Amino acid sequence: MEKLTLKGCGTAMFTPFKDGKVDYETMAALTRRQVEAGMDFLVPLGTTGETPCLSSEEKLKVFRTVKENAGKVPVVVGVGTNSVDGTLANIDLLKEADAFLVVAPYYNKPPQRGLYEYFKAVAAHTPKPVILYNVPGRTGCNIEAATTLKLAQDVPNIIAVKEASGNIAQASAILEGKPEGFELLSGNDDDTLTLMRKGAAGVISVASNVCPELMVEFTHAALSADWDKADELDRRMHNLFKNLFVEPNPIPGKAAMALLGLMENSLRLPLVKALPETEELMKKTLQEL
Asked: What angle do CA 218, 222, 225 make, to 5 degrees?
């Protein structure tokens, strides 16, 4: 197994579009902005990247654009689908990645034993590190703590879970029972401080697209147990954390990035641009920040 430690802040990157096509030039610029901010790792092609709406050719080019501009910053790439074959095909396509983020298979509603066998089969396909991604609000199924812990114990290259269930008790059970070397990463910006106080290693963040320097400072303060500073930064970014989800992610976030002049406010159907009131809210949020 290839060694990789993920701590601090990783950005769940937006995929910029222009005239309906992926804007690779802007993707490169956004990657460099993240690196210059001191980001610990990058996560393109996840939920935030509108990945179900990208072709295989686009996925590969997005990944290579990020990788070429990331320098020494690890690139963790989203590969999960709702079938084993689809996920393995993405792993083969994106085999140059440093690690793979694998979401629970959506729509199928598998039982826990099915989730266990699925992730075990996916991890057996690659020597590279695998990160479980639990986001039941998107997938319709929850990876229970016992299943996560069994996978962490039984499968050496499953090294972490991105826990975005919002269930603090479930995350706490994972943190209390996890084997050495297995990490929990918050999947929700607004849960990060609570989970890092309990021992989480960091966050895979949406907000860090907007304010990467602040998110790096925030997570590094928490890793150093500088709780006064972490509390202050958490309070400062609270409205951003909340308002980035007033419509489905990444709709508000892309509106914010457009207001900052960093990308066009363009999404692929079935996602659509933010409502005018959401744009106004993001403008106010950025001004406050």
From this structure: 140
